[in-house]
Amino acid sequence: MEVTRRSRTAPDRDRPGWLRGAPPPGWARVLPTALLVGVCLAELISPEPLDIGFLLGAIPPLAVLAHGPVATAALGALAVLVLSVPVFNLDDPGSTDVLTVCFVSVLSVLLSYVRSRRDEQLVTERAVAEAAQRAVVPPLPRRVGPVECAGLYRAAQRGTLVGGDFFDVRAGPYGVRAVMGDVQGHGLSAVATVASLLGAFREAVLDQPAPEAVAARLDRRLAVDSADEPHAELFATAVLLDFSADARVVRIVACGQCGPLLIRDGHVVELDVEPGTPLGLGLAEAAPPRVVSVRLRAGDRLFLASDGVTEARDADGAFYPLAERLPGLTAEDPAALAERVWSDLVRHCPDVRDDVTMLVLEPCPRPGP
Known about the structure:
By secondary structure, the chain is of the alpha+beta class. The chain has helices spanning 26-45, 59-64, 69-84, 95-136, 191-207, 211-225, 307-310, 322-325, 334-348; strands spanning 143-144, 147-154, 165-172, 175-183, 236-243, 249-255, 261-264, 267-270, 291-295, 301-305, 356-363.
């Protein structure tokens, strides 16, 4: 299942508003024309002349909000025409009133031209930025080998697709490997570190036979990246999962982060996975990470969540009870489970300020003796 980035049931924090680059709403496009028609109808219906000609001067600036220079010029010309037509008798405007509306119209056309060009540039830059971010964290396939996958990612920084969290699921010669982690910091400043770690993970999947060796590769990558920065203190937490070829056993390595939750027969089991040393602090010099093996059954699911989920607090300061809520949020589709948890999390903590990442893995063990 592809990575889901928007929730239909929860407030959509990722969708840009009109003032943040989204196309103007329909009412903004209709408003100048509606105002022009309203002024004309009011003058025609009223038995006495109405002193409302000044409203026509607002039509060109309103057109700038949603229309290009051609439409703005046309609406400005119509405003001048209506102001000058005797049948409307808009308080018998003089040359000063007409010249004022003409000047406002010309200025509005110029502003509309500048806005249109800047909007085109913004659309291009946003498309390039989204392509670059999706290259860092591409959508997950629905299935990787014998493992079904679903992920949900909500970056803390509005308008971005990638923050300080990361996850990936890859198949290699030693089986299917998955990773979920959180680098120091969040937002765009952490994207470079995320890209570096994911690149190291994808390479390690191909040539490292053991999950602890994959963790050591990620640790070395962070150490090398921070070698030229004496005060960088670059580190990350991560959980690595290594599935056997038949998906009946998973080996788990935790580096400074709690392990996954096992959903089995409608119940949640907290696996005994000891968080080890975070990545970037020298795994080679510390005790090697502990590898925990778990036998899996058909229908089991592994649910991983970042601290943006587990450390979210409500108005009273209570943490989000993920393990307690999961049994009541289960769904047939792994992606639906992630969406339900996100919706429930937003109800618990409407103002989520950290990166939120979830990864649902459903192994499909192959029949065997």
